[in-house]
Amino acid sequence: MSIFAIGDLHLSLGPNVDKPMDIFGGGWLNHADRLKEEWNDMIGDTDTVIVPGDISWALKLEGAMPDLDYVDNLRGHKVIIKGNHDLWWAGITKLNTLKKSITFLQNTCYSVPDTGICICGTRGWISPGTEGFDAQDNKIYNRETMRLEKSIQAAAASGADDIIGVMHYPPTNDKKQSSAFTRIFEEYGAKTVVYGHLHGKESFRYGIQGILNGVDYKLVSLDYLECRPIKLR
Q: CA-to-CA distance for 184 and 189, rounded, in angstroms?
């Protein structure tokens, strides 16, 4: 049993959702087909795959169902958090009745069976020190900080031997300075944190990569990984 991650699938398979991603560069050409091939080549039925948000361009859950069907038909168990474009995201209780192979994570954690590994996280937000960060940003940032702490506290309470943190937004600003998010991961002993949101070579360099105060941070957006999930454990 292994743990993988890849985020920002940006699917638009529904008949009423028209959002071709190849307008953002060749790395997105036929990305859904390429992802499916890479995913099913690497991942087995007993593996777990973390998907840090931005699953579907649909605005409502009904419109997102073809995209969720696509994810459901991929191998392994999927653990998903909300991204900033996941406007279709409905109540968490309802979401977790939809697909047996998908766990939607919000304000709690997911214990990977028989491993001692616990996955926790939240969407996140831009951090202080980001250009233009204002009072409204600070309000959302504080809310997301509380959500992350609630999730990681649940992981710690579960007695996990290994905590993997997940965010959609990078956990630092573009200067890669510490934040409330990074301090929470450090305090509760997370070993690895994955995140997405950043797209294009110019943006990749603003994301923290590698070890900061004992925590290993990894950017896992689809175009950064070139449609190939990364193995974490």
A: 8
